[in-house]
Amino acid sequence: MFFPVLFFLLLGCFVSWLAIFLMLQAGFGRSAGARAQHHHTHAEAVPRIGGAGIMLGFAVVYLLCFYQLDDLDNESLLHYAVFAGAAGAFLLGFIDDFRPLGAKVKLLAQIIIAMLAHECGLSIERVNLPFFGLVDLGIFSVALTVIWFVAMMNLINLIDGLDGLAGGIGLMLMALLAYLGFHEGLALSTILALGMVGAILGFLFHNFPPAKVYMGDSGAYLIGYTIAALALLNSQKGTVAAALIAPVLALALPIADVAFAMLRRGIKGLPLFRPDRSHIHHRLIRAGLSHRNTVLILYAVSLLALGAGLLAFSAQGRFLPIFLGFAFVVILITLRGQKITIQGVRDMFSDSINARQDTRNALFLRDWFIVEAERADSGQHLWSDYHFILKKMGFCRAELAIGEEERRFFVPNTPHENVEALLRSELELRGAAPGILRLYADRDHFSDRQFFIIADIAAESWTRAAARWQEINDGPLTFEAQAKPAPTYRTQKARNLYRPTY
Fold first, then answer.
1. How many C-beta atoms lie closer than 10 Å to residue 91's C-beta?
2. Are 430 and 463 in contact (CB under 8 A)?
C-alpha cells in the first residue's frame, strides 16, 4: 500500500511543479493574470497561475486512478462529479483571474456548480443530531449542500492573503481527507486526496515566501470544492456529522478569521467580502514577524486544529462540546488581550452607525473614479480627477509620489497647513503605479477610526484606477504619461466629452 500512495502523491507533485515552472518560464500570466492587489502583502504584481498547475496535477492523478480501481468505481456518477465539479470551479476562478467577473456572477456560478453536485449524489441528505437521532433533511438538503460547497470555495479564497498560507492549510485538509478516505475504505477518495496533496505541494515550491506565483481564484475554488466534495464522499459509509465536523474543526483558524473579518467590515459599513489588512496574518506581520515566520506559526495552529478534527472523527463527534468550550475560552482570552470594554464597544457601534453613509459615498466615488480612468487621456488628468473624489471624501490636503515624481493639492479655506488640527495617514500604494500617498483631513470632520477607513478606500481608488488606465493604454502610469490613440470612433468620442475636474 505504501508504494501506490507514494506514487500518486509524487505524481501530482511533479506534474504541478513542472507545469507552473514551464508557465513561468514562458511568461504566461505576467500581464492580465497579475493584476494589482491593493490589500495584498506583495508590492509587485505576481502571476496568478498556480491554480492551473494544481488542476493539471489533480487531473493526471484522476485519469491514472482508473487503472488502479475496478469498473464499478469508474462507472459511479458520484465519482465523476468530484472531478467535473472541481474542473468547473477551477474554470470559474481561472476566467475571473484574467477577466474579473462580478461578485454576483461568481456567486451564481458557484450555486449552479453546487446544485449539480447535489444532483449527482454529493449531498447532505441526513444528519445525526444529539437527542434527535438520524434526521432526514428533505427539501433542506439542497440548501445545506449549496451552503457547504459555496462556503468552502470562498473560505479558501478569503484566507489566500499571504504567501504559502492558503496552500499550506489546503494541503493539511487534503492529508486529513486522505486519512479519512483510507479509514472508510474508499479507494477513489483516498487517491484523489493524495493527488491533491501532491499537486498543492508542487505549487508550494513556487508559492512559499517569497512567492513567484499565486494560486489565484482558480486554485482557491478548486481546492475548496475538492475539500467539500471529498468530505461528502467520505460520509457515504459513515455518519455525515462526523465526516463534516473533522474538516470544519481543521479549518477552525481560517473560519474564525473570516467570521471576525466579516463582522468587522459590517460594523464599519464596508462590503462583507471587501479585502482589508486586518486579518490575523496582517496583524502578526505588523507585530514584527517576518512573512515566513507568520506562515509557520499559522501552520502550527492549523496542525493543532487538524489533530482536533482527527480526534473528533475517531470519536464520532463525542468530544465536540469539549473543543467548542476550549475555543470559547481562547476567544475570551483573546478579547481580554484586546482591552475591549463595554463603553468602547458602545462607542464603536455609535461611530459606525453615524459613519456608514460616509463609507458608502466613498465606495461610490471609488467606483466612479475607476470607470472615469478609461476616459482620462493623460496621467495628469487622472490626478486631476483624483482631486475631485478626495475633496468629496472629505480630505483637505493630499500628496502623491510615483517614483521620483510628486504632486500635491489642497482645498482652499481649510486648515490644510495646521498640523495639530489635522488627521494624517501615509499609505503605501502597491500594484500598478506603486508609490506613497499621504492624506490629511480636519479632526472636526472625522473620528480616528472613520478617517483611516476612508483613507484606505481612497488609496484603493487610485490603485485600481491606475491599474485600469495601464491595462487600457499598455504602458506605465506617470503624471506625464499620455494615453495611446483611441482604437475606435466611440472611444475617441468618449474622450472628447471628457472634462478633467481641475
1. 17
2. yes
Angle ∠(262,266,272) on CA atoms, nearest 5: 50
Task: Kindly report the pTM of this predicted structure.
Answer: 0.74
DSSP letters spanning 54-66: HHHHHHHHHHHGG
Whole-angstrom distance, CA of residue 77 vs CA of residue 384: 59
CA–CA separation, 129 vs 111, rounded Å? 26
Contact predicate 295/162, CB 8 Å? yes
What distance separates the 2 farthest-apart alpha carbons in the chain?
81
Q: What's the pLDDT score for residue 314?
A: 61
Please state the φ and ψ torsions of residue 400, each to the nearest 5 degrees. Answer: -125, 125
State the first-to-last Cα distance of the chain, in angstroms, to the nearest integer: 72
pLDDT at 221: 92
Q: What are phi and psi of 436, to 5 degrees?
A: -125, 135
User: Who wins on pLDDT, 500 or 27?
Assistant: 27
- Whether 384 shows a pLDDT value over 50: the answer reads yes
Buried b (16+ CB within 10 A) or exposed e, 21-42: bebbeeeebeeebbbbbbbbbb
66 — phi, psi (to 5°)? -65, -25
DSSP letter (8 states) at residue 122: -
| Strands 126-129 and 133-136, bridge-based pairing | antiparallel
Question: Which sign does the torsion angle of CA 16, 152, 261, 107 carry?
Answer: positive
Please name which of 445, 400, 449 lies closest in space to residue 422, comparing C-alpha atoms.
445
Domains and CATH numbers, the chain: 2-33+40-242 (no CATH), 356-497 (3.30.450)
Are 247 and 241 a contacting pair, CB within 8 Å?
no
Averaged pLDDT, 429-443: 81
The more confident residue out of 21 and 75 is 21
Tell which residue, 469, 319, 316, 453, has the closest CA to residue 379.
Answer: 469
Place of cell 481612497: 458
Asked whether the bond before 247 is cis by omega within 30 degrees of 0, the reply is: no
Q: At what angle do helices 2-25 and 50-64 cross, to 10 degrees?
A: 140
For 220-243, how does the pLDDT look when each residue is reduced to its tens digit (9 = 90+)? 899 999 988 888 887 764 455 555
- Which residue has cell 464522499? 233
**DSSP codes of every residue in 304-367:** HHHHHHHHHHHTTTTTHHHHHHHHHHHHHHHHHHTT--HHHHHHHHHHHHHHHHHHHHHHHHHH
Q: Kindly list the distances between the CA atom of residue 467 and the CA atoms of 30, 381, 428, 475, in Å, as whole numbers in the listed order.
A: 14, 15, 15, 10
CA distance 52 to 55: 5
Assess whether pLDDT exceeds 70 at residue 31.
Answer: no
Phi, then psi, of 30 in degrees rounded to 5: -85, 0
| Per-residue b or e along 104-138, where b marks 16 or more CB atoms closer than 10 Å to that residue's CB | eebeebbeebbeebbebbbbbbbbeeeeeeeeebe
